[in-house]
Write a structure and sequence with these properties.
The protein contains 15 helices and eight strands. The protein has 333 residues and is α/β, with parallel strands linked by helices.
Length: 333
């Protein structure tokens, strides 16, 4: 696949400077001539350009970034953040779902359980992982691991990155809606800390099936919404091509999520997005995860559950109106 296929339109000027810098470095290595000053100047110009472009991104631009084919996926963060990990498989009922990964890991001196959706890098892996859209057995596997975490007093870390749950006939036959609803119900009362981080796409019920936690975080250029912007546009305006308008209206970005009270913290990404410096993105994420786990560890289980319940009950906007009883009776008569 040509590298240009992985470059978004607003990234093209940045890519051109990257190519110039790479070419000068190559020629320098071949000739032995010192051109470090030229390289430093171009790198400074590139960084200023990135800052300018990324300070003016639209909600649709961030949607495209969240779906970037080079963006780090769950297992990229797992391999980088944790000191060691063991992936566990199967839901003990039907099968193992490669779109949902999970296992036991060590975060510094703390044992944790992780679950998360995993997309694929190439065509073959994308088919194997079902593009990150988990089936019922994936959600049941995630729940099995979370119940294990509860049993052994390990906190749970959920990495959310999916366009939506699987919607094929087989998934419907095996109860995809019930599996997601069961996860939400069980996570409400899970007697161990849960930290959720949206690392890419947080799409629909596929996301919320592992996203009900004590702390819900978002990477800076991730998105979180009840439906993909194109689906929203198809329903509201009968035109899926208006996905850009849908992204703006739904406030899918991390800033929108924080404004609506859906998330607790936005985690800063490296300049130009997590795909430009995965190691730094992972370090930033690790620092924030550790801080939240340390804070949650100070709470008793009853306090934890009460706060979790209140957190999700307080979401949303509504108005209360008092109605005179006499007028209601008159209207009924």
């Amino acid at each position: 696949m040509p590298p240009s296929w992985n470059i978004l339109d607003f990234e093209k000027p940045i890519s051109e400077l990257d190519e110039q810098i790479a070419e000068i470095k190559r020629l320098t290595a071949e000739s032995g001539e010192d051109r470090s000053q030229d390289i430093a100047t171009l790198e400074s110009d590139r960084d200023r350009l990135i800052e300018h472009i990324f300070s003016n991104l639209s909600a649709w631009d961030k949607t495209l970034l969240a779906r970037h084919p080079k963006r780090p996926y769950t297992l990229d963060y797992v391999r980088t953040i944790f000191d060691d990990y063991t992936e566990l498989h199967g839901d003990r009922l039907f099968a193992d779902d490669p779109a949902m990964v999970g296992g036991i890991a060590t975060l510094d001196d703390r044992q944790v359980v992780f679950v998360g959706q995993q997309k694929g890098r190439d065509i073959k892996e994308r088919g194997y992982r079902n593009f990150g859209s988990a089936k019922p057995e994936g959600y049941r596997k995630a729940l099995r691991l979370m119940k294990q975490a509860e049993k052994f007093h390990r906190p749970v870390i959920c990495f959310v990155d999916t366009p939506a749950a699987d919607v094929n006939v087989g998934a419907e036959q095996r109860g995809i809606s019930g599996a997601i609803a069961r996860n939400m119900m069980e996570m409400t009362g899970l007697k161990t800390p849960i930290v959720v981080v949206v690392i890419g796409e947080g799409g629909s019920g596929g996301a919320i099936g592992i996203a009900l936690g004590d702390r819900v975080l978002m990477l800076e250029h991730s998105i979180y919404a009840v439906i993909p912007p194109e689906g929203f546009a198809a329903i509201v305006w009968k035109d899926a091509a208006r996905g850009k308008d849908g992204a703006e209206a739904m406030k899918v970005t991390s800033e929108g999520g924080r404004e609506l009270g859906l998330i607790d913290e936005v985690i800063e990404e490296p300049l130009g997005g997590a795909h430009r410096n995965m190691e730094l993105a992972a370090r930033n994420l690790k620092v924030v995860l550790t801080r939240h786990l340390d804070e949650l560890a100070q709470l008793s289980i009853p306090e934890l559950l009460d706060m979790r319940y209140a957190k999700f009950r307080d979401m949303g906007a509504y108005e209360e109106k008092s109605v005179a009883v006499d007028s209601v009776i008159t209207d009924c008569v």
